[in-house]
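Quick one, tokens below. Sequence please?
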């Protein structure tokens, strides 16, 4: 069981309502094999959407190979997450 954690400047309320987040460059083999949970973190790390990864409905965009993350049963959690580098994608 692995969590895919991404950091974004996008509107978390909109992401929460739509149950999807676009255009992530990920290790697709790892996503297909290991990911069960996703966390979408605000840029400053204080608010996070945590949800079940919807593997069946997530998809790779043609052209650039980026993942459209879809998820189920989202919930808000207050966090204090620090990303150590500029890469907005982590596996935890």
């Amino acid at each position: 069981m692995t969590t895919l954690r991404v950091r974004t400047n996008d509107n978390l309320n909109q992401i929460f309502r739509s149950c999807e987040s676009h255009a992530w460059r990920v290790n697709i083999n790892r996503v297909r094999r290991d990911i069960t949970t996703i966390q979408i973190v605000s840029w400053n790390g204080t608010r996070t959407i945590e949800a079940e990864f919807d593997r069946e409905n997530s998809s790779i965009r043609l052209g650039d190979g980026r993942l459209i993350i879809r998820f189920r049963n989202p919930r808000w959690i207050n966090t204090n997450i620090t990303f150590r580098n500029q890469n907005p994608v982590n596996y935890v």
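The first strand starts at residue 2 and ends at 8. The beta strands are 2-8, 20-24, 35-42, 47-53, 59-60, 67-78, 89-91.
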